[in-house]
């Protein structure tokens, strides 16, 4: 703000007609911070809230508390901006500006700090954790990709974190203990807030080391944790911090929408896992569900204005029964009516935000070490290999993609130049986490595409099992990490949809091929013939529910690192590498 506007705002003239504009423009714009307007805006909210309260004589005249919740999700090692958006340094400055405006700020992340950017991967998210400490995060729910590394790595990350790692539904395999906090309690003036963490129970199928833990049902764990937070603390707001996503991946899958429908007493769900880009909250059973896209490209901001009368903090217990209010929440002694005002927006983090010198200083020594190892050019591209479509969908999870084709063909290039043989390659689209830029390509770029450090495996399947394999791919909804990408030897049609379709599963169970026009090397599948499929070690062990791979008659572990296969393939091009879409997957709308 310039000096003239500052003087005017101090005289009581509000320059923001829409009071919520303080949060910034929609996801298409950038928030412009106006600290000089803070006092008058806060007063405006206060007067508005007091006017609302005066309409109800039963509500005590108590100064309302304004609680700001900043939230991110699916960071995936995105230390630097991608496509001009995000970056920890910009994020830190944005959070700093909000803290300068508001006293009561809660900072949360809905999981998957790990696995993505090569700098983060190389140092096992150490620079990310240090940056989160500096930014001032209060809690992070554990995502499935927190289990991509051995448990010892997660233990070290938890020790380095100055925030709480949350999950109410994770137990140890051995003694059945809960190694992580189920929730945190924060007081903001007269308002007590509980944040409960829930992790998707599909983690053992979608991570390398998830099988070393027990993941309880999300609904029962959430109910137990919400009750515990209320009975022990008599909270005013319950926030469910979840890493489950909004996509119904299977009939049994528990999404954030399922939790909203099944768990009473929730005021807000902050979600991750599905990388959902929202223009407005999703409402289910009267509960708002919010998510902030991915990789820090957007930051969600929620505002609660809470007013209530003073009341004791201990709950009223009658025998073994918890006395609940009309919202299903355990009731405190002498409850009073509370009034809540809620607003939410997602703020795009673009180059209009400055960078934090403190965060840059944290990152620099790690970046210097990486540059020495990863900065050499290995190839040149003629065009960008896109990762997102215009709607923000990740292309390898939606249909045929140039980057998916490149990776699958790279696997076959390795096979063809080795002692092994395979008929085609099939990979999960969720294994691919970025595209390739136009121009010079470095090893770092390839590690950004394939951050999981997986290996090439070859599985021998019968023709009947190949049909079962593609039957299964037909049941996977678009947007799911299990969506198949295939090499150039394959052609098939996929019936497009964005949610799990039970009728397809029923057809699959009857052995009816639901991938029309499937051919391998131009020929239909012969049920009596054997085929060799090249994949990654994640899928060969049944990851993403590709259990048919575990039933193969032979498993050959090549010990070839996926990133090495892609690097060698790119290096084989004598001219610039061009994106290729050749119709190997035809999505039927």
Sequence-ordered SSE layout with sheet pairings:
Blueprint: H1 3-10, H2 38-54, E1 65-72, H3 88-101, E2 105-109, H4 118-122, H5 126-135, E3 139-141, H6 151-160, E4 164-166, E5 170-172, E6 183-188, E7 191-199, H7 203-206, E8 213-215, H8 218-233, E9 237-243, H9 256-262, E10 268-272, E11 282-284, E12 287-290, E13 298-307, E14 317-318, E15 321-322, E16 339-348, H10 357-374, E17 377-381, H11 402-416, E18 424-428, E19 439-442, H12 443-449, E20 455-462, H13 463-475, E21 484-486, E22 490-495, H14 502-509, E23 519-520, E24 530-536, H15 537-540, E25 554-561, H16 562-571, E26 585-588
Parallel strand pairs: 1-2, 2-3, 3-4, 7-9, 9-10, 10-12, 18-24, 22-26
Antiparallel strand pairs: 1-13, 5-8, 6-7, 11-12, 13-16, 14-15, 17-19, 18-21, 20-24, 20-25, 22-23
Helix pairs in contact: 3-5, 5-10, 11-16, 13-14
Please provide the count of β strands.
26
In which range does the helix fraction lie? 25-40%
Secondary-structure content class = alpha/beta
Biggest sheet details:
6 strands, mixed
Number of domains: 2
Q: How many whole angstroms does the radius of gyration measure? A: 26 Å
Q: Which sequence of strands runs across the widest sheet?
A: 4-3-2-1-13-16
Oligomeric state: single chain
User: What do we call the CATH topology of the largest domain?
Assistant: Purple Acid Phosphatase, chain A, domain 2
Give the overall shape, derived from the CA principal axes. Answer: globular
% residues in beta strands: 15-25%
Count of helix runs: 16
User: What ranges have pLDDT less than 50 throughout 5 or more consecutive residues?
Assistant: 1-61, 311-323, 331-335, 499-513
State the CATH class of the largest domain: Alpha Beta
CATH architecture of the largest domain: 4-Layer Sandwich
